[in-house]
Design brief:
With 578 residues, this protein is of the alpha/beta class. Helices cover 23% and strands 24% of the residues. It has a 7-stranded mixed beta sheet, with helices on both faces. Strands 1-11-4-3-15-26 form a 6-stranded parallel beta sheet. A hairpin with a 5-residue loop joins strand 13 and strand 14 (256-261). Helix 5 crosses helix 12. The chain is globular, with a radius of gyration of 23 Å. Belongs to the GMC oxidoreductase family. Keywords: FAD, Flavoprotein, Signal.
C-alpha cells in the first residue's frame, strides 16, 4: 500500500493540516539547544513546548525561572508554509527535524505526533471549542478559574471564522438531519449545531500555542529547541519517596546537557510531552510496569507503576468524500453538529494543489523508496465525517526501544467495545441524512447516493486494515474497516491512575504531568482549547502554592544566579559526566 496515495487522500479528505504561522518572528529567549550550557539549574523544568507546555511555561515565568525543552523546531522559521497549498509538503516531510512525525498504531491506522514548538496547534484543523460543563465538573476544576484561563487563551489567538457556501450548506444540512437547535457562533459545547472558533486570523495566518509565549516574562524563561530529553533524574534514597531533581537532554549535535532544579522545596519538573511522549518518557526514566521496563533493560526501575501507558484512547473517525458539481471554498472545520447521542459531525472542503514531492518513505513500510511523486490536482470536493466522543474502547502504549525520539508501540483497540460501534452506526446514519439533505444538494452530484459515497472509502488506502465485502451494505463492518484517527488521542498518564487531581505523579515528589495524557476522555469537540487552558489553569495554581510557601519560608532564594549568555537559569560552564 502506497503511503503517498494515503497522504494524497488525506489532502483530499480533510485538509486538516494547514501550516500557517504567526509573522511575529521569534522570541529572544528562544534558542537552539546547541547554545545551552552543559549544566544549569532552574526553578521549573517543562519537558515539551507543545499545546499545554507553552501555556504552562508562560504562566510560571511570571514568578520563577523556567526552562522549556522542545524536541522540535520553531513554527516561526518557515513563513513560506503559510498557504494551504503547502499542506502536503509539511505532512509528507518526516525527516528528523520535521514538524510532523508519523506513526502507525498496532491497529493499522495512520497517525502522527507533533514535533514543533506549539505542538499539534501548529498542525491541526484550527477548530476551537471549550470542554462541556460536565467535563469541568468531572475534573473537579474551579469553574471561575477555568473561565479565566480560557479567556486568557482566546484573547491571544482565537477568532470568529467567516462561514461561506459549503460550510453554510453543511450547517443547514445538519439542522435538516435533526441535529438541533442552531446555537450560532459560540466557544461553548452545546448540543445541536454551532459555529466554533478558529485559530486562524482574518488574514488567514495561523496562531498557535507558541504565541502564548508572548505572555511570558522574558527575564524568567528560556526555551531550547531541538532539545531531546532522554530521561528524568530522581533521588532514590532508601526509605524515602523518589524525587525528581533534573533531566538529561541532547542537542542536535549529539551533545548531552544536564538541567537540575534549584534547591527549593517548591521546584518541580513538568512533563508536557503529550499522550505519546509523556508516558514514553516516564517509562524511559524508570517509572512504569516493572516487568516491561526490565525487559527493555531500563535501569534503574525507580517506581513500579503498572498504569503508565494504560488507558490509551483515540476518538475514531469515519468519513465520506463528497465531490461537488460546482466550486467550493477552501474551508477547514468551522461547523460542528453535536448530536443527541453526544457524537460529532464535522466537515471541510476545497482543494487546489499542484506540486512535486520527493519523500523517503518509512523503512519496511513500502516497496518503493525515494520515489518522486508528481501530483497535479484540481478538485472540488468536500468531506463529511463522524467522530465518536469518549470511546469506551481503550488500549495501551509500550516501549519499542530506548530512543526517546522513536515512536513507541501504541494500540488503541478501535471499536473493540460494541457500544462504540453502535454510536458509529448512528453517526454515519446522520452523515447520510446530511449528504442527502435538500440544503446540501447543490454540493452533491444528482443521482449519487450518500451510501455510494461512503463505499468509495472502501477502495482507498486510508488505513492498513482488511476490507470485507459486507462493508458495502453493513455500516457496522464499514466502521471497522474504514476507521481513521481525528488526532485526538489521549491517556497513558491518567488522573487517578498515574497522577492525582493536582497532576502530581503518584508515588513521586516534584514531578507532574500536565497535558492530554492525563485525560480520561478527550474534552469538547476538539481538545486543543482545553489543553491550552489546562496549562494556564495549573500554572496559576502552582504559582499560588509557591507564593504561600514563600510567605511561610523566608529563605526562598537558595541559589544566586550567575550571568550566563546562554541561560537565565543558575548555570555553570564546567563540563560534567552524567
Amino acid at each position: 500500500m502506497d503511503f503517498h496515495i494515503f497522504c494524497f487522500i488525506l489532502i483530499t479528505i480533510f485538509i486538516l493540516y494547514s501550516p500557517c504561522y504567526s509573522d511575529k518572528g521569534y522570541y529572544g529567549f528562544m534558542k537552539d539547544a546547541t547554545l545551552a550550557p552543559t549544566y544549569a539549574r532552574f526553578d521549573y523544568i517543562v519537558i515539551g513546548g507543545g499545546t499545554s507546555g507553552c501555556a504552562l511555561a508562560a504562566t510560571l515565568s511570571q514568578n520563577a525561572n523556567v526552562l522549556v525543552l522542545e524536541r522540535g523546531g520553531s513554527p516561526y522559521d518557515n513563513l513560506a508554509a503559510t498557504n494551504i497549498e503547502n499542506f502536503a509538503i509539511t505532512l509528507l516531510n518526516t525527516t528528523p527535524k520535521a514538524w510532523s512525525q508519523l506513526f502507525i498504531s498496532e491497529d493499522g491506522v495512520y497517525n502522527h505526533r507533533a514535533r514543533v514548538l506549539g505542538g499539534d496547534s501548529v498542525l491541526n484543523a484550527r477548530f476551537y471549542s471549550r470542554a462541556e460543563e460536565a467535563y469541568v465538573k468531572m475534573a473537579e476544576w474551579d469553574i471561575d478559574e477555568v473561565e479565566a484561563a480560557y479567556e486568557w487563551v482566546e484573547t491571544k489567538l482565537v477568532f470568529k471564522p467567516q462561514v461561506m457556501g459549503w460550510q453554510s450548506a453543511l450547517k443547514n444540512g445538519l439542522l435538516e438531519a435533526g441535529v438541533v437547535p442552531y446555537n450560532g457562533f459560540t466557544y461553548l459545547h452545546i448540543n445541536g449545531t454551532k459555529i466554533g472558533g478558529t485559530i486562524f486570523d482574518p488574514a488567514g495566518h495561523r496562531h498557535s500555542a507558541a504565541d502564548l509565549l508572548a505572555y511570558a516574562n522574558p527575564d524568567g524563561i528560556v526555551v531550547y529547541l531541538h532539545a531531546l530529553v532522554h530521561k528524568i533524574l530522581f533521588t532514590t534514597t532508601r526509605g524515602e519517596r523518589p524525587k525528581a531533581y533534573g533531566v538529561i537532554y541532547q542537542d542536535a549535535n549529539g551533545v548531552f546537557h544536564k538541567a537540575e532544579l534549584g534547591k527549593n522545596a517548591m521546584n518541580e519538573v513538568f512533563l508536557s510531552a503529550g499522550a505519546i511522549g509523556s508516558p514514553q518518557l516516564l517509562m524511559l526514566s524508570g517509572v512504569g510496569p516493572m516487568a516491561h521496563l526490565e525487559s527493555h533493560r531500563v535501569n534503574p526501575v525507580v517506581l513500579d507503576q503498572p498504569m503508565v501507558g494504560q488507558g490509551m484512547g483515540d476518538n475514531p473517525m469515519n468519513a465520506a468524500i463528497v465531490p461537488s458539481p460546482q466550486p467550493v471554498e477552501l474551508s477547514l472545520v468551522q461547523v460542528v453538529g453535536i448530536t443527541k447521542f453526544y457524537d460529532f459531525i464535522e466537515g471541510g472542503s476545497g482543494l487546489n494543489v499542484s506540486f512535486n514531492l520527493t519523500h523517503k518513505l518509512f523503512d519496511g513500510m513500502l516497496d518503493l523508496l525515494n520515489q518522486r511523486l508528481r501530483l497535479n490536482i484540481i478538485e472540488n470536493v468536500g468531506v463529511v465525517f463522524h467522530k465518536v466522543d469518549g470511546p469506551l474502547s481503550r488500549g495501551y502504549l509500550e516501549l519499542r526501544n530506548l530512543n526517546p525520539d522513536d515512536n513507541p508501540s501504541v494500540t488503541f483497540n478501535y471499536y473493540r467495545e460494541p457500544e462504540d460501534l453502535k454510536r458509529c452506526v448512528k453517526g454515519l446514519e446522520t452523515v447520510i441524512k446530511v449528504i442527502n439533505s435538500n440544503a446540501f444538494s447543490k454540493y452533491k452530484y444528482p443521482g449519487v447516493t450518500a451510501r455510494e459515497l461512503l463505499n468509495v472509502m472502501l477502495g482507498l488506502p486510508i488505513n492498513l486494515r482488511p476490507r470485507h465485502e459486507t462493508s458495502t451494505f453493513n455500516l457496522t463492518q464499514f466502521c471497522i474497516d474504514t476507521v481513521m484517527t481525528i488526532w485526538h488521542y489521549h491517556g497513558g498518564c491518567q488522573v487517578g491512575r498515574v497522577v492525582d487531581k493536582n497532576y502530581k505523579v503518584i508515588g513521586i515528589d516534584a514531578l507532574r504531568v500536565i497535558d492530554g495524557s492525563t485525560f480520561l476522555k478527550s474534552p469538547g469537540t476538539n481538545p486543543q482549547a482545553t489543553v491550552m487552558m489546562l496549562g494556564r489553569y495549573m500554572g496559576q495554581r502552582i504559582l499560588r502554592e509557591r507564593a504561600a510557601f514563600r510567605e511561610k519560608d523566608c529563605d526562598y532564594s537558595t541559589v544566586v544566579p550567575t550571568k550566563d549568555e546562554t541561560s537565565i537559569g543558575y548555570s555553570s560552564s564546567k563540563k560534567k559526566k552524567f
